[in-house]
Write a structure and sequence with these properties.
heterodimer, A: alpha/beta, 2 domains, B: mainly alpha, ABC transporter involved in vitamin B12 uptake, BtuC
Chain lengths: 236, 289
C-alpha cells in the first residue's frame, strides 16, 4: 500500500501540491483525476523521488520514501510509466525491456518471454528501434518495461494520451486485468476521467494542488458536480 | 601502400582521443578540453616509474589506472557541481584544468622531452629497397588501438554496464525511474574515457614524439576535429574521423609538404561541416558548433 500524508510541493513561489493525503490500497487501482495544472504529474513524480516535497510523508508499506533516491525507490518495487511514456527511442525494444529488468532480480529470459506473451507485437518488433513504433506500441513497451521488474506498485501517468478511443479502451481493460491477476497497486493519473473511473476502485480528485474529493470510484463517478466542475465530463 | 600504414598509425591515435571525447560527450555533454593533458599527466606518473626500475608494461598499466582515477576524480570534483549550469562553464573549467596540468607537469618533471624506451623496435621494415612506414612498434600501436576500440564497442553494445551507460546518457530521468544509478554511470563514463585517453597518451609518449608537458596538444586538436567530423554522438564516427584525418595528413606529408600536413584535418572538418554539420555519422539533425 502507498500512503500519502499532508504532501506539499512548491516550484519556487508556485504551490503545486497542498496538503495532499490519500491511500492507494494493495491490489487496487486509485485514479488521480483533475484538469491540467491540478498537480497530478507532480504527485507521481514526488512519489518516485524526482521531486522533493517541502512537507509530508509517502510510505510504501513500512518504508518512508521521502528522501530516498529515485533509483532506490524503483529498486523497492515502484514502477513509473512517465507522461509521454519515456521509451528510449535510440534503443531497441529488447534493450528497453532489458533496462527495465536491471533493477530487479527477475530472470531476464523468463521476463522477456512473459512480456512478449502479454504483448505479442513487442516480440515481433524486439530488434527494432523504438523510434519506428506507433503510439500504441510505445505505450505497450512502456508498460512491459515497468512490469518486467515485477513491481509492487505501478504509477501510470496519462497512459491514454494520444491514443485512439478503441486503443484506450483496450489499454484500460489490460490495466484492470493486470491489477486483478497480480494484486498490483496502481496509481493511475488520467485526464480521461470517464475511462479511468470505469476501471478504478477509488478516485482522488485534485484541483490546483489540493484534494477536492476522494472515495469510491463509483461514488465519484456519480457525483454530477464533481464531474461538471472538476473532471470536464459533460453532464446531460 | 606505405603511406596507408603511416596514416593508419597516426589515425588510430586520433581515433582513440576522439573516442575518449565522444564517451564523455555522450554521457555528460561536456567537451573535455583537458583530455589530452589528463592523459599526459597520467603518463608522466606511470612512465617515470621506469626510472625506479618498474617494467614498461607495469608502467603502462599504472598510467592507465592513474588516468582512470584522474577521470573519476575530475567528474566528481570539477564537473558534477556544474551539471545544470550554462554549457560554457565546464568548457572554461576544463580549459583551465588543461593549463593547470601542463604547468604542474612542467614544474614537477621539467619541460625537457623524455624518451621512453619503447617495447618494440621503431625501425621501419623495407620492401624492395624502399622504406615501408611499418615497424613492430607501429603494428603494436595499430593493434592495441584497434583492440581498445573493439573492447569499448563491445562493452557498450553487449554488456549490462554498456546499456546503462547508454541509457543514462540518452534519458537520465527515465533511467533513474528504471533503477539505474545514473550519477555512478556518469562517473564510470569519465573513468572509461580517461582510461582510453591515457592509452593514447602512452602510445604517443612511447613513440618518436616522446613525453613533454604539451605533447598531447596537437594530438588533442586532431582528435577533437576527428570527433567533430565523425559526429560527437557517434563512437564509430570518432574512429572513422580519426583514421580519415590520419590518412589525409600522411598523404599531404608525402606528396606536398610536412608543413601543411595539419591542414588535412582542417580541410576535412570544413568539408564535413558543409555537408553534414551534425557530423558524418551522427543521427542527430543538427548541433551547435
Amino acid at each position: 500500500m502507498i500512503q500519502v500524508e499532508q504532501l506539499s510541493v512548491n516550484y519556487g513561489a508556485v504551490r503545486a501540491l497542498r496538503d495532499v493525503s490519500f491511500d492507494a490500497p494493495t491490489g487496487q487501482i486509485t485514479a488521480v483525476l483533475g484538469a491540467n495544472g491540478a498537480g497530478k504529474t507532480t504527485l507521481l513524480r514526488t512519489i518516485s523521488g524526482l521531486v522533493t516535497p517541502q512537507r509530508g510523508r509517502i510510505r510504501l508499506g513500512d518504508v518512508e520514501l521521502v528522501g530516498v533516491a529515485t533509483e532506490n525507490i524503483a529498486r523497492l518495487g515502484v514502477g513509473h510509466v512517465p507522461e509521454g511514456r519515456g521509451v528510449i527511442e535510440e534503443l531497441t525494444v529488447e534493450e528497453n525491456l532489458r533496462l527495465g529488468a536491471l533493477s530487479s532480480k527477475v530472470n531476464l529470459s523468463e521476463g522477456l518471454d512473459e512480456q512478449y506473451a502479454r504483448f505479442p507485437v513487442l516480440g515481433e518488433r524486439r530488434k527494432r528501434h523504438c523510434s519506428t513504433l506507433s503510439g500504441g506500441e510505445r505505450q505497450m513497451l512502456a508498460m512491459a518495461r515497468a512490469l518486467i521488474a515485477k513491481p509492487r506498485v505501478l504509477l501510470l501517468d496519462e497512459p491514454s494520451l494520444g491514443l485512439a478511443p478503441q486503443v484506450t479502451a483496450q489499454l484500460m481493460k489490460s490495466i484492470r486485468q493486470l491489477c486483478d491477476s497480480q494484486r498490483l497497486t496502481v496509481v493511475l493519473v488520467e485526464q480521461n476521467a470517464k475511462s479511468a473511473l470505469r476501471i478504478a476502485h477509488q478516485a482522488v480528485v485534485l484541483h490546483l494542488g489540493s484534494v477536492v474529493a476522494s472515495g469510491d470510484a463509483a461514488t465519484v463517478a456519480a457525483d454530477e458536480d464533481l464531474r461538471r466542475y472538476y473532471l470536464g465530463v459533460v453532464v446531460p | 601502400m606505405h603511406n596507408i600504414f603511416g596514416g593508419l598509425a597516426q589515425g588510430v591515435i586520433y581515433s582513440l582521443v576522439a573516442l575518449s571525447l565522444v564517451i564523455i560527450w555522450q554521457s555528460t555533454h561536456v567537451l573535455n578540453f583537458a583530455q589530452g593533458a589528463m592523459g599526459m599527466f597520467a603518463t608522466y606518473i606511470g612512465m617515470t616509474e621506469i626510472d625506479r626500475g618498474l617494467g614498461y608494461w607495469w608502467c603502462v598499466v599504472l598510467s592507465v589506472l592513474v588516468g582512470m582515477a584522474l577521470g573519476g576524480a575530475t567528474e566528481r570534483v570539477l564537473i558534477r557541481p556544474l551539471y545544470g549550469k550554462p554549457e560554457i562553464n565546464p568548457i572554461v573549467v576544463m580549459v583551465g584544468f588543461l593549463g593547470v596540468l601542463e604547468a604542474l607537469a612542467a614544474a614537477i618533471w621539467t619541460s625537457t622531452t623524455r624518451n621512453i624506451t619503447e617495447p618494440f623496435s621503431q625501425i621501419y621494415y623495407q620492401s624492395h629497397g624502399h622504406l615501408v612506414f611499418l615497424s613492430p612498434f607501429v603494428i603494436f600501436q595499430i593493434l592495441l588501438a584497434m583492440g581498445i576500440m573493439l573492447t569499448i564497442a563491445a562493452l557498450f553494445r553487449f554488456t549490462k554496464l554498456g546499456l546503462q551507460l547508454r541509457a543514462s546518457a540518452l534519458a537520465p530521468e527515465v533511467s533513474r525511474l528504471l533503477g539505474v544509478r545514473v550519477s555512478r554511470m556518469l562517473t564510470i563514463g569519465w573513468i572509461l574515457s580517461a582510461g582510453v585517453g591515457a592509452i593514447a597518451a602512452v602510445i604517443v609518449a612511447s613513440g618518436s614524439f616522446g613525453l613533454f608537458p604539451t605533447n598531447m596538444d596537437g594530438i588533442f586538436v586532431a582528435g577533437f576535429i576527428a570527433a567533430a567530423v565523425g559526429g560527437l554522438e557517434s563512437p564509430i564516427g570518432a574512429v572513422a574521423g580519426g583514421l580519415l584525418i590520419g590518412l589525409a595528413e600522411q598523404f599531404i606529408l608525402a606528396y606536398w609538404s610536412p608543413n601543411v600536413a595539419p591542414l588535412g584535418g582542417i580541410i576535412i572538418l570544413v568539408v564535413a561541416l558543409m555537408i553534414r554539420p551534425q557530423g558524418l555519422f551522427s543521427k542527430n539533425v543538427s548541433r551547435r558548433v
